[in-house]
Amino acid sequence: MKRLVVALVSATSLLVSVAAFAQSTSTPAATPAAAPAQESTSTAPVPGAKRAACQSAAKALKGQERHDQMQLCMAQAHLDCLKQAIDQKIVGPQRKDFVKSCAS
């Protein structure tokens, strides 16, 4: 049962990262003249969506396993957001703000 849940969470993380990558590669081509600050506001994901996805993925688990799964899922979400910011060439304080708003 644990392996099924871990496989399901892994597949969900993979799908989220593929969707984020697809979104990040199509957005800059559509708006090449946009400034980095404008890109971060126009492509910012819904706040709390990734956290809610992690909570629903860890819902079936209990105790330490649930805590560990939440930490792993949120770390993966943070990494996905950082990759998205790098792909969009967001730098400086805007990158920090983008990753923080994206992952939370």
From TrEMBL:
Residues 1-22 form the signal peptide. Keywords: Signal. This is PsiF repeat-containing protein. Residues 27-49 are annotated as: Disordered.
